[in-house]
Amino acid sequence: MTQALRRRGLLGAAASLAALPAGRARADLPDRQRWLWVQNNAGEEVAVAYRTGQDYNIQALARLQHLFRDLRENLAGPTPPLLLDMLSLIQERFGYTRPLRVISGYRTPATNASLPFAAPNSLHMRGMAADIVMPGMAQADVCNQAMQFSQHLGFMGIGWYGSFTHVDIGPKASWTRMLN
């Protein structure tokens, strides 16, 4: 028997509705699977259906949490399902058929402190952020799509760093910082 975590709430529903193609009946939503295909900097890859409707698959979430771990410390932290939903939506909107690359997911405080441009209170330390790349796509387009979701939903922090896009599930914010 598959273990599932029941989740109800406006944000989860809003995220799911944002991904529906125009004209799709809302009645289709409960049976809809949410997929995520991701790869981390260690080359580890997970392609998994982690949610059907509002039911989250515990085993799939655990696999994703491991992939999003702090690679320097080899420690996994929290990975909120809402962050996974946002990344899945971005991947789906582009019809992206390759793994989304996670440059940085969860960070320990020590790893965060060692990074020259990391915010001292970074949402990465709470597992609420991911720095992503979609190989073969212009990062400006990835950032713009994430900003559209932010506008629609009324939350999400989106940062464009030139070579990657930061996505978080914190308060609505946007910024650009070009790193050399």
TrEMBL record:
PROSITE patterns: TAT (PS51318). GO terms for biological process: cell wall organization; proteolysis. It holds the Pfam family Peptidase_M15_2. SUPFAM superfamilies: Hedgehog/DD-peptidase. Gene3D superfamilies: 3.30.1380.10. Keywords: Cell wall biogenesis/degradation, Hydrolase, Metal-binding, Metalloprotease, Protease, Signal, Zinc. GO terms for molecular function: metal ion binding; metallopeptidase activity. Pathway: Cell wall biogenesis; cell wall polysaccharide biosynthesis. The keyword Hydrolase applies. Residues 1-27 form the signal peptide. InterPro entries: MepK, TAT_signal, Zn_M74/Hedgehog-like. Belongs to the peptidase M15 family. This is Murein endopeptidase K. It comes from Neoroseomonas soli. The lineage of its organism: Bacteria, Pseudomonadati, Pseudomonadota, Alphaproteobacteria, Acetobacterales.
